Amino acid sequence: MGIPVAFAFPVTNLIGAWLYLGGEAGLGQIVRNGFVAVSSFSLTPIPLFILMGEILFHTGLAVKVIEGVERLITRLPGRLAVVAVVAGTVFSAISGSTIATTAMLGSLMVPVMLARGYHPTMATGPIMAIGAVDMLIPPSALTVLLGSLANISISGLLIGGIGPGLLLSAGFVLWIVVRCTMNPSLAPATDFETFHGWERWRPFFQYVLPLLSIFGVVVGAMVAGWSTPTESAALGVVATLAIAVAYRALSLKALMQSLRGTIAISGMILLIIMGATTFAQILTFSGASNGIVEAITGTGLGPMAIVAGMMLILIFRASSWTRSA
């Protein structure tokens, strides 16, 4: 979905700038806006956070997180969906790439759930929902983007996202268990291999806990005031590379794939930033911004009602995407 948005913005801006910003002068303004938008130093953590997730994805270490979580979660309604949410939450704490998280979980978990008779909604819904958790729990490239555009403390946003992210993840787990208890046909109970003793806990101590040290490095450095978000992101990349080397999972091929993925995702995000700046100006000059504000305030609704309406729009859009998937 990000790729169409990344290219839709420039096309819309070209037409809007020509019509509302003065023809050729408007096109020149697009270039100036783009340069100013992407040259901000506060955006530096974005490619570094994304690189962390790409390295874990292409080296296969992320798969070990799923294995470690799956052995711990045994008899629960909707077990595999719960595993997807918990593993995605753990991976969110060690990866700054929402795309890498959802791609990994989608490619590994969805085929297994569908093969075991899970309803398509129950199979794809948790994978799509975990993207929201990944946006909140640091390291998060989208949090850096939001903080940069809104001129808000990026460190404060990153740290402040931990609690809401964990609460959201817990809410997803609770909802899955309740829904599958009420309607067992959504997630049929299937036989699975049960591990006991050390074999059950071995992947957790061998892979999950060491990988979570990346979260400790990134967040701990910011909380202690030892480093800025950019420096913390650089430390996170170094820690990720060190762990990948320690597990003998880092190869030249995996590193190149990680770098290519980082360039592609970072480029897409920067295109959106470039487009958003000019798009905001077009909305202002065309009068659309004032018109929308007047239409909303004219309803007489209070602030909480307006926020609730915005949330309902997002929920219904997410529901339609899940049904189409």
Task: Describe the protein's architecture and organization.
The protein is mostly helical. It has two domains: about 40-250, no CATH class; about 290-325, no CATH class. About 80% of the residues lie in helices and about 0% in strands. It has helices at about 1-20, 25-40, 45-60, 60-70, 80-90, 100-115, 120-135, 140-150, 155-160, 160-180, 200-225, 230-245, 250-285, 290-295, 305-325. α3 (about 45-60) packs parallel to α12 and α11 (about 200-225) packs antiparallel against α12 (about 230-245). The protein is globular and about 70 Å long. The two termini are about 15 Å apart.
Descriptive terms for the model:
mainly alpha; 325 residues; 80% helix; 2 domains; disordered C terminus
